[in-house]
Amino acid sequence: RALRSRDPVNRDSMFTALGCSNKYHLLYGFVENYLGNSTITKRDYSKLLQGLVQYNNDIGPVLEFMESSMVKLKSVSKKRLRWNQTMLKDLSQQVFTKQQLKQLKNMMAQSKGFTVADLAGMEQTVEHNSRWR
Questions:
Q1: For the whole model, what pTM was predicted?
Q2: pLDDT digits (tens, 9 = 90+) for 4-34
Q3: 2 part of a folded domain
Q4: Total count of domains within the chain
Q5: CB 3.0–4.6 Å: which of 2, 81, 113, 127 could bond 75 by disulfide?
Q6: Distance CA 47, CA 89 (A)
Q7: Mind listing the pLDDT tens digit for each residue in 38-83?
Q8: Domain annotation covers residue 118
Q9: Which domain of life does the protein's organism represent (predicted)?
């Protein structure tokens, strides 16, 4: 499941490489993997969040950001996320609600690739966010 290419990533091949059944699956898988990348900068992360906010209407900005960022991702793994305080704080502003998380879990449980267990990191974050609010 590693994406090691430094060439621009074709959108269709990215779907295939990540084993995604739909754009929700692709988006979640990318977010999980991107946050697990230790070289992420706050500016990059803000850009990703902006893309997520726009995602409800159009996945285009997210896909464009993913394509431009893929060069930085040397591999894609299913390692458990190592959340730090900055990420948790930033994620308190993120777009997933508990209901949306449940929908994502259901979709991913019915598709190949990431499993429900892989969502533990995001679930903890959503619980953390609900306490923040």
A1: 0.23
A2: 433 334 444 544 444 444 555 555 555 555 5
A3: no
A4: 1
A5: 2
A6: 15
A7: 455 556 555 655 555 554 445 555 555 544 544 343 333 333 333 3
A8: yes
A9: Eukaryota
In the chain, how many H helices and how many E strands?
Answer: 7, 0
Rounded Cα gap, residues 128 and 11, in angstroms:
33
Q: Domain for residue 4, yes or no?
A: no
User: Whole-angstrom Cα distance, residue 90 to residue 66?
Assistant: 19
Long-range contacts of 60-68 (CB under 8 A, 24+ apart): 62/27, 62/30, 63/11, 66/9, 66/14, 66/30, 66/34, 67/8, 67/9, 67/11, 67/14
Phi/psi for 2 (5° steps) reads -90, 140
Q: Which two tokens stand for residue 77?
A: 């793994």
Q: Which helix (H) or strand (E) segment is 41 a member of?
A: none
| Per-residue DSSP letter, 110 | T
Tokens of 36: 């697990």
Domain membership of residue 77 as a residue range: 11-132
Chain centroid to CA 76: 11
Concatenated DSSP letters for 31-93?
HHHHHT-TT--HHHHHHHHHHHHHTTT-SHHHHHHHHHHTTT-S----PPP---HHHHHHHTT
